[in-house]
Recover the amino acids of this structure.
């Protein structure tokens, strides 16, 4: 909270006390509660998801721009002032800041075109890889958008997808004015759950008529991200602990992604494609699926660098070009 208040442009800072007494949070904030910009609001829904408190905060937003923030995170001093300066300069609906773990490592998402800071494009700048909608968001255009409630994880997936694929004016701050992530292993994001629960946000997105109505190129961009992050990530972290129900759930989600954008498989690596085949076929032994999952994470090997179709080796989402963009994004 203290880091938010270092920006002069902040009109109000709404602290949602989620499933915890307001008085306890007020005590922890100390003298900060005396700042007239600070508003404490209680919410008890007994749901372990940030969707409810985020949405309550959005309901309270009145300024032309708003931003959300995790309870454990902080901002560089004056960050919001800089975001607002960029928004006004570029007439942007959304400003994406640089992310950095508090320990020092930069978060290389989204892997945009090198040096690009304004007029970002959902496909060409791979915006789908920034799932968390952190930064400055224009209320005139997106004031009615809300996080998906009823999910224990992935509540921000549809929200951010709608942001990036809206055709809005999007800018980014490449360095400085950073959003600092305090990575806490106890966060709900890292709790193990059944695969059907873990990937419910993906399923909900794929069932959305709005997503199915996007162009083929846009659907490929979304599908490749879904394969690489939530689906392959679930396979990686589930290794050695599979149940038949989890294998079937993973297969169902994989089939749905394939239906959304069949062409996405053309730019995935050969190792990725081998893993996809195992995901889609629950009869493949668990240890073989795990072996293929480990193989696709050996990123310097030919099978992890070359796409299934060699003619797509220079495609935007193909492994070599994607890896180069990610490397640059982590150091820009």
């Amino acid at each position: 909270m203290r880091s938010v208040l270092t920006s002069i442009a902040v009109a109000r800072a709404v602290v949602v006390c989620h499933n915890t007494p307001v008085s306890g949070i007020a005590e922890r904030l100390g003298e900060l509660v005396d700042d007239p910009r600070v508003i404490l609001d209680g919410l008890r829904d007994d749901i372990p998801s940030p969707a409810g408190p985020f949405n309550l905060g959005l309901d309270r937003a009145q300024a032309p721009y708003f931003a959300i923030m995790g309870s454990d995170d902080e901002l560089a001093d004056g960050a919001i002032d800089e975001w607002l300066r960029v928004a006004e300069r570029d007439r942007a609906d959304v400003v994406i800041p640089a992310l950095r773990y508090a320990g020092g490592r930069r978060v290389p998402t989204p892997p945009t075109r090198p040096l690009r800071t304004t007029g970002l494009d959902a496909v060409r700048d791979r915006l789908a890889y920034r799932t968390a909608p952190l930064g400055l968001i224009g209320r005139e255009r997106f004031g009615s958008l809300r996080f998906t409630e009823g999910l224990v994880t992935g509540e921000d997936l549809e929200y951010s997808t709608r942001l990036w694929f809206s055709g809005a004016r999007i800018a980014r701050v490449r360095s400085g004015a950073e959003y600092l992530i305090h990575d806490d292993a106890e966060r709900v994001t890292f709790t193990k759950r059944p695969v059907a629960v873990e990937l419910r946000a993906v399923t909900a997105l794929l069932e959305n008529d709005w997503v199915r109505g996007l162009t083929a190129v846009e659907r490929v961009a979304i599908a490749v991200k879904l394969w690489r992050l939530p689906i392959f990530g679930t396979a990686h972290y589930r290794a050695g602990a599979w149940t038949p129900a989890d294998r079937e759930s993973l297969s169902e989600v994989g089939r749905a992604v394939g239906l959304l954008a069949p062409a996405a498989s053309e730019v995935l690596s050969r190792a990725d494609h081998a893993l996809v085949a195992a995901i889609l076929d629950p009869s493949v032994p668990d240890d073989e699926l795990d072996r293929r999952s480990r193989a696709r994470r050996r990123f310097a090997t030919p099978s992890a660098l070359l796409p299934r179709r060699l003619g797509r080796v220079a495609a935007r989402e193909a492994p070599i070009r994607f890896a180069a963009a990610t490397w640059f994004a982590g150091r820009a």
Observations:
- The radius of gyration is 20 Å.
- Strands lie at 13-18, 38-43, 65-66, 74-75, 94-96, 99-101, 106-107, 136-138, 170-172, 179-181.
